């Protein structure tokens, strides 16, 4: 079997042929995370797998393959355990500056680590190409593996689709705790559905919105807040709504209303024609509170 079939998958192939790891050929648009590093990539694959086993002792069958062999520059790697297959590309080059600014600037951690991330030297791209159907479980598999790169001078985990990021030491700390990653499950806007605030010229107030919910088959949400002081309120609201929709399989549509306490009603609408800044991939619902 050719190395391209092993790395990218082939419609006629199953997960494994012999001992080879086969990427799922039915995934056309995989979810992914990026890890940025200080200095050149210096990854020891055996230590990487040992760390993953240490984080989750229930993993028994983890292994890796290098479909293109050892490369002089960069990394190509397949990592597999259970249902999961993760494709890794690594480059000894900085991650695009505009994407870093998009994902790091709105993040809620210190300026010192943000500056280190802006000055990072190399990066890995992790894509889920396994056989788990639940998108959240796919993200959790990626996050488990991402946590293991702290030992190799990793700085942060970036989710470009969600416009968000977290320091890798925070990710590793969560992953190393018993059920620690449930924090990311219970609060999707932390990493998987980012929470962004921004001002628009000639509009009074602060727009707050999510990104990346479309990966879960959910709408993103936005609201025009009065000030930045309402950030926690809308962060919690978006998080609760997204969790409710994901768990219940319910739907929300323009025109829906909901009572939210204190004699207040929440109504949903589609973005207006002049709200071009809210329009991107997937559906978005604007929340208005009366």
Automatic annotation (TrEMBL):
It comes from the Bacteria. Pfam families: DUF4261. InterPro entries: DUF4261. Residues 209-270 form the DUF4261 domain. This is DUF4261 domain-containing protein. It comes from Gilliamella apicola.
